[in-house]
C-alpha cells in the first residue's frame, strides 16, 4: 500500500510522541507550556525533506487526535498525559459534601502533584428538559433545581457536574444556597424525608457540544465521558447527577468489592 508523504510523517511523528521523545519535564505545568515542545515547522521540514505545508498538515492530524496542541505565538506542544482517577464507587461518591471536597483536594495534591484545587458553584431554578424529566419521573418543563459544580485544577477546568433535584423536594431548603453542604446532599435528603436506597448509573462517550468545549477548554478531537447517576428513595427518583469528563484526562473507578456483578472478567 502506497502512503503519502504526509501520512508517513504523521505516523513517524506519532511514534516519536508516543515513545516520549518530546515529553515535557516532570515539573511542567498541567498545560505542558513549560516543556514538550516540538521543533518548528521549518526544522521538521528540513528533517523530513518536506514542504512546510506538508508538515503543517501532518501536525494538524495529530492535533485532532489530541496528541498535540498549538499555542498561538509559542509553538506546538505535546499534550501532557496526566489522567486523574474519579472514584464513582458507592463508598467514594458523596455529592456536595464539603468534607469530601476537602479530602479529594488533599488526595490530588499527594498523589498527582496538583497544587490548586477549587470549584465554582452555581444554583438555578430551571425547567426540566426531556432527558432530565424522564430520569426524575417528571413532566417535561417541570421545575428543577440545578446545582452546577465546575472543578478547576491548577487553573484548568477538569470536569463539571450538574445535580438536578425536583423543585418540590429542593425549594426552601439548603439545596437552594450556592454553597457546599458540609454533611452532603445524601444526608440532607434523608433529613427531608427522602432517604436514598439505591441508584442507577449510565456511562457513555460522545463528542462535546460547543458549550462543553468552551467550558472545559477542550482541544479538537477530544471526546467526553458522560456519567449519569439517578438516585432513588423507596418511592421516587430524588436526584439526577450528570458529570461531564474530558476523556483525555480522566478515568472512572468503581470498587465493587462485596458487590454482586453481572460482568464476566475478560482480557483487554
UniProtKB/TrEMBL annotation:
Region of interest called Disordered, as start-end residue ranges on this chain: 1-40
GO MF entry, a single one: DNA binding
Keyword DNA-binding assigned: yes
InterPro entries linked: Bact_HTH_transcr_reg, Chorismate_lyase_/UTRA_dom_sf, Tscrpt_reg_HTH_GntR, UTRA, WH-like_DNA-bd_sf, WH_DNA-bd_sf
Domain HTH gntR-type as annotated: residue spans: 3-81
Gene Ontology terms describing biological process: negative regulation of DNA-templated transcription
Ranges of biased composition (kind: Basic and acidic residues): 8-19
Segments forming a coiled coil: none
CDD domains: WHTH_GntR
Assigned keywords, A-Z: DNA-binding, Transcription, Transcription regulation
Lineage: superkingdom: Bacteria
Name of the protein: GntR family transcriptional regulator
Organism of origin: Allonocardiopsis opalescens
Amino acid at each position: 500500500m502506497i502512503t503519502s508523504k504526509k501520512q508517513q510523517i504523521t505516523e513517524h511523528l506519532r511514534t516519536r510522541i508516543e515513545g516520549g521523545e518530546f515529553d515535557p519535564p516532570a515539573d511542567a505545568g498541567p498545560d505542558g507550556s513549560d516543556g514538550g515542545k516540538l521543533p518548528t515547522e521549518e526544522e521538521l521540514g528540513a528533517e523530513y525533506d518536506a514542504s512546510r505545508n506538508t508538515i503543517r498538515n501532518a501536525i494538524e492530524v495529530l492535533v485532532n487526535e489530541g496528541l498535540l496542541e498549538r499555542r498561538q505565538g509559542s509553538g506546538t506542544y505535546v499534550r501532557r498525559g496526566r489522567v486523574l482517577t474519579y472514584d464513582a464507587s458507592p463508598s467514594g461518591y458523596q455529592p456536595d459534601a464539603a468534607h469530601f471536597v476537602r479530602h479529594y483536594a488533599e488526595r490530588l495534591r499527594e498523589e498527582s502533584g496538583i497544587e490548586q484545587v477549587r470549584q465554582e458553584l452555581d444554583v438555578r431554578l430551571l425547567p426540566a428538559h426531556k432527558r432530565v424529566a424522564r430520569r426524575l419521573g417528571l413532566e417535561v418543563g417541570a421545575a428543577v433545581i440545578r446545582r452546577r459544580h465546575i472543578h478547576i485544577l491548577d487553573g484548568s477546568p477538569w470536569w463539571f457536574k450538574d445535580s438536578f433535584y425536583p423543585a418540590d423536594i429542593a425549594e426552601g431548603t439548603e439545596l437552594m444556597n450556592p454553597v457546599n453542604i458540609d454533611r452532603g446532599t445524601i444526608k440532607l435528603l434523608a433529613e427531608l424525608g427522602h432517604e436514598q436506597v439505591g441508584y442507577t448509573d449510565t456511562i457513555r462517550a460522545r463528542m462535546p457540544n460547543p458549550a462543553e468545549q468552551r467550558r472545559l477548554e477542550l482541544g479538537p478531537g477530544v471526546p467526553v465521558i458522560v456519567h449519569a447517576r439517578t438516585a432513588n428513595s423507596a418511592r421516587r427518583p430524588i436526584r439526577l447527577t450528570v458529570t461531564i469528563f474530558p476523556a483525555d484526562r480522566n478515568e472512572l473507578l468503581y470498587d465493587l468489592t462485596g458487590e454482586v456483578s453481572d460482568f464476566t472478567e475478560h482480557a483487554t
